[in-house]
Prior knowledge:
There is one protein chain. The protein is α+β, with helices and mostly antiparallel strands. It has three helices and four strands; from the N terminus they run βαβββαα. A hairpin with a 4-residue loop joins strand 2 (26-28) and strand 3. It starts with a strand and ends in a 12-residue tail after the last helix.
Amino acid sequence: MTHVVLESCIRCKYTDCVDVCPVDCFREGPNMLVIDPDECIDCAVCIPECPVNAILPEEDVPNDQLQFIKLNAELTKNWPSITKRKAPPPDADDWKDVKDKLDKLVR
C-alpha cells in the first residue's frame, strides 16, 4: 500500500509533508502535490504534517476520493520531485476549506 494526496491539496499545496518524507516520494504540480506510489514506503510521517488533511493511506481513501489513487500514480510520471518545503500559494488559505476542487487541478 501507499499513501495518497487527495483533493484538499488542490490550490493549497502546502509543502510541510515534503520536509519529513524520508524517501522523497512527493512530486510537485502547478497547484497540487502527489505521492509516487512506487517510492512511498508507507511510513505515514507525512500525514500529521498536512494542514489540510490531504494525505491518507490508500486503504482509507473515502469513496468520493478514490479517483485520486489513480491520479497520484498518473501525475507522478510527469511531475518533478520536490524535496524541500516551499511557501504555499498566496491564496492557499482561501482554498483550504473549499470542496469539489478537482476542476481546479492544473496538470
